[in-house]
Amino acid sequence: MLTPFHIAFQVRDIDEAREFYGRKMGLPEGRSDSAWIDFNMFGHQVVAHLNPTLGPNGKVANHCNPVDAHAVPVPHFGVVLEIDQWKELAKRVRTFVNDFIVEPYVRFEGLPGEQHTMFFEDPSGNALEFKAFANINAELFATTREADA
Q: Residues in domain VOC (predicted)?
């Protein structure tokens, strides 16, 4: 049985985070304070913490690594979903994200670990990735070596 993970991340504005994660992404809000908010991200606890040093226009710093011909931002976080959930989320996100880091698409098509994926940023510059596999148990940690066996 998988247990929920917990991650805390920086945001430049609590109300802006509440709007993005709560209203736009549709994540239920848990406990909150003037400096942080818990969100339920598909059963996982993600906590937006105010970092006033980011300033109103500031963003957290990211580095990118090449993966499958895309510049993948590091750090990033998100959730592995069922394909139908992923498609529904991609449709919703397209209503408020104008500039995807990586547009929704199928990565590693026809190879072990084939996955639907998308990357986008929150208003504070936190990179998010959501992905889905046809068979999570068989493909989440698949390697080429396993496929050749």
A: 3-133
Confidence (pLDDT) at 147: 41
6-11 and 44-50 beta bridge pairing: parallel
Hey, how many other C-beta atoms are within 10 angstroms of the C-beta on 118?
23
Rounded Cα gap, residues 106 and 8, in angstroms: 28
Q: How far is CA 71 from CA 27, 68, 77, 101, 122, in A?
A: 27, 8, 15, 8, 17
Q: Could you list the mean pLDDT of each consecutive 10-residue stretch along the chain, which spans 149 residues? A: 92 97 97 96 97 88 88 94 96 97 92 91 97 88 57
Q: Return the amino acid letter for 113.
A: G
Domains of the chain with CATH codes: 6-148 (3.10.180.10)
Strand, helix or coil at 43? coil
Question: Residue 107's beta-bridge partner residues?
Answer: 115
pLDDT of residue 144: 60
Residue 98 three-state SS: coil
